[in-house]
From TrEMBL:
Cited Pfam families: UDPGT (PF00201)
Listed name of the protein: UDP-glucuronosyltransferase
Keywords attached to this entry: Glycosyltransferase, Membrane, Signal, Transferase, Transmembrane, Transmembrane helix
Family affiliation: Belongs to the UDP-glycosyltransferase family.
Underlying gene: 105312289
Length: 522
C-alpha cells in the first residue's frame, strides 16, 4: 500500500512536470487566408488542453469570434485602420501587376512599401513590444511576420515557431533544376526557363537582403533586436523552426534546412468533421445529384469576377452534363447570366459555401479555383482534381505545381474562354489519371499529420528549445564570403595560379638553359 502511494505521488509529479499544459501565444495578421492555418493550429492546441491566446487586430474579418469559437482566448492588438474596400483595392493593384508580368518584383515591393498601413505589421509589432512575453511558453506566428516577432520574442527568451504554406525564395536551395518560387514556370524547364528561374531567385534574394528590413520590420527597435539576436534578415528554418503546410509530391524535391518540417495541410478539425446537413438547402440539392456529377467554382472573396469570366464558366460547362456549385461573393453576383437563374436545378450559387464539407461529398467531380494554398490543399486533401486560374502571388506557384503533379490544369487569366474551360473539363473527364493521382496525393496529405503533427512539433520546441539545432554558419553570423567559402577558394586559386606561373617560369628557364648549352656545344 505504501509503495502504491509513493508510486502515485511520483506519477503525479512526473505528469505535473512533463504533461502540464503550455501557455501559447498565436500572433496573426487580420486576414482570413493567412490566419486560417494558425487558427487551425490554435484550435488543436486548445483541444489538447493547452492555454491558447490568439492575438491580432480587430477589423471586418472579426478574428475575435473566430478565435473564441475554436476554444482560444483573444488578445486585441488594436483596431486595424484599413477598411475592407482599401484592402480589396490593394489586392486588385497587385493582381494588375501580376497580369502584366510575374517578374514585376520591384513594382510589387514598391507597392508593399507604400501600403504598410494596410498590411498592419507595424501595429502588431508595436503592441507586441509592449507585452511581457514571459507569461507564454511559446509563440506561434505566420511567416509573413517572421522579420519581427522572433526578434522581439528572442530578446525575452521565448521560443518562436513560424508557419507558412510554401517553402519560399530566400532559402539555400539552388535555383535549378526546379523553378523558383513565383517564377510561374513548370518543372520541365527549358534553357529560357532555367535562366529566368535563376534571375527571379537572384532578384528575390537581393530584394530580401536589401529591402526586407525597411518593408517588414519598420521599427528601429525591432531592427536592433533582430541584429542583436539573429543573422538578420532571419533565415526561416535555420534560425527559427518553420512548419510548411505541404507534402512531397506537391512540393518539389530540395535540400531542407535543419528546422524545416513538412506537416501537410493545416485544416480545422471542426470544419473537417462538419456535416453539410446544417446547410439544408445545399444538402437537399446535392442529394439529388449522382456520383461525380458536380463542378465546384470558387475564385475567393477578394477577386472581382468580370462578366466575361462568368460567361466563360457558364458557357464552358453548359454543354456538359455537370451541375455547378458556385461560391460567389455578393459583390460579384451582378455578373451572373440570366440562364443561371432560370435553371436552379443545375446551378447552386451562394455567397458562402462550407468548402471543406462540400469537397468531401461524393457528387463533386472537380473544382475550379483561383489557386490559393487553402483551396488547393482542401481540394487535394479530399482527392478532388482542379482547374486553377491564378491571379496573384503564390497562386501562380500552386497552379504550376498542381499541373506538374498531374492533379489539375492551369489556365492563366488571359487563357480563360468558354472553349478552354470545356477542353480542360474534357481532359480531366477523358482519363482517370487526374483522379487517381489526386487520390494518391490525398493519402500523402492525410499521412503527413496536419495540425496534429504541427502541434506535436510546437510542444517539442516549447519544451526543449532549439538553440542547439541552429547550424554554425547561422549561429556565428558568417558573412556570405565565409558561408560560400569564397575566401578559401580565392586563396587556393591564387596558390594554384602562382604555382603554375612558377612552374612555367622554371620550365622556360630549363628549356633556355638546355638550348644555350646545346648551342655552345655545337
Amino acid at each position: 500500500m505504501v509503495w502504491l502511494l509513493i508510486s502515485l505521488i511520483f506519477l503525479s509529479i512526473f505528469l505535473r512536470i512533463y504533461c502540464s499544459p503550455l501557455d501559447v501565444l498565436i500572433v496573426s495578421t487580420p486576414f482570413v487566408g493567412h490566419s486560417f492555418r494558425v487558427l487551425s493550429i490554435g484550435e488543436e492546441l486548445a483541444r489538447k488542453g493547452h492555454n491558447v491566446t490568439f492575438m491580432s487586430l480587430d477589423n471586418w474579418v472579426n478574428m475575435r469570434n473566430k478565435a473564441i469559437e475554436r476554444g482560444m482566448s483573444y488578445l486585441s492588438a488594436g483596431r486595424h485602420d484599413a477598411e475592407e474596400g482599401e484592402w480589396r483595392e490593394f489586392v486588385l493593384k497587385r493582381i494588375e501587376l501580376s497580369a502584366q508580368s510575374p517578374f514585376t518584383l520591384l513594382a510589387d515591393f514598391k507597392l508593399l512599401t507604400e501600403s504598410r498601413k494596410l498590411l498592419s505589421f507595424d501595429a502588431i509589432v508595436e503592441f507586441l513590444i509592449r507585452q511581457d512575453l514571459k507569461q507564454w511558453d511559446v509563440i506561434v506566428t505566420e511567416k509573413e511576420l517572421l522579420q519581427s516577432v522572433p526578434c522581439i520574442a528572442k530578446s525575452q527568451g521565448i521560443p518562436v515557431v513560424t508557419v507558412t504554406s510554401y517553402y519560399s525564395y530566400n532559402t539555400e536551395s539552388p535555383p535549378w533544376p526546379f523553378p523558383s518560387y513565383q517564377s510561374g514556370h513548370s518543372e520541365n524547364l527549358t534553357f529560357k526557363g532555367r535562366f529566368l528561374s535563376f534571375l527571379v531567385t537572384v532578384g528575390h534574394r537581393f530584394l530580401h537582403a536589401v529591402s526586407l528590413k525597411r518593408i517588414i520590420s519598420g521599427s528601429s527597435t525591432t531592427e536592433r533586436l533582430c541584429s542583436d539576436n539573429f543573422k538578420y534578415p532571419i533565415e526561416s528554418g535555420w534560425e527559427v523552426p518553420l512548419l510548411v503546410s505541404t507534402v512531397l509530391g506537391l512540393e518539389y524535391p530540395r535540400v531542407l534546412s535543419p528546422m524545416t518540417h513538412y506537416v501537410g495541410p493545416l485544416l480545422s478539425r471542426h470544419l473537417l468533421n462538419a456535416s453539410l446537413e446544417f446547410n439544408s438547402h445545399l444538402w437537399k440539392w446535392l442529394e439529388t445529384k449522382s456520383n461525380k456529377s458536380v463542378i465546384y467554382i470558387s475564385m475567393g472573396s477578394l477577386v472581382s469576377i468580370s462578366t466575361d469570366l462568368a460567361h466563360a464558366f457558364i458557357d464552358g460547362i453548359k454543354d456538359t452534363n455537370y451541375s455547378v456549385v458556385w461560391s460567389l461573393s455578393d459583390l460579384n453576383k451582378n455578373v451572373i447570366p440570366n440562364v443561371v437563374k432560370l435553371h436552379p436545378e443545375k446551378y447552386h450559387i451562394s455567397s458562402w459555401i462550407p468548402q471543406l464539407a462540400l469537397l468531401q461529398h461524393s457528387s463533386i467531380f472537380l473544382a475550379i479555383l483561383h489557386g490559393g494554398a487553402n483551396g488547393v490543399h482542401e481540394a487535394l486533401y479530399h482527392g478532388v482534381p482542379g482547374i486553377l486560374i491564378p491571379f496573384v502571388n503564390d497562386q501562380f506557384d500552386w497552379s504550376v505545381r498542381v499541373e506538374d503533379a498531374g492533379v489539375g490544369i492551369q489556365l492563366l487569366p488571359h487563357q480563360v474562354t468558354s472553349s478552354s474551360i470545356k477542353e480542360s473539363i474534357q481532359r480531366i473527364e477523358s482519363t482517370d489519371e487526374y483522379h487517381k493521382k489526386a487520390s494518391l496525393l490525398s493519402v500523402l496529405m492525410r499521412r503527413a499529420g496536419g495540425t496534429n503533427e504541427a502541434v506535436e512539433l510546437i510542444e517539442f520546441y516549447a519544451t526543449y528549445g532549439y538553440d542547439h539545432l541552429i547550424p554554425a554558419p547561422i549561429k556565428y553570423k558568417w558573412n556570405w564570403m565565409a558561408y560560400y567559402n569564397i575566401d578559401v577558394y580565392a586563396i587556393i586559386s591564387c596558390f594554384v595560379l602562382t604555382s603554375m606561373w612558377i612552374f612555367k617560369k622554371c620550365c622556360c628557364k630549363c628549356c633556355c638553359w638546355s638550348m644555350n648549352k646545346k648551342l655552345k656545344q655545337s
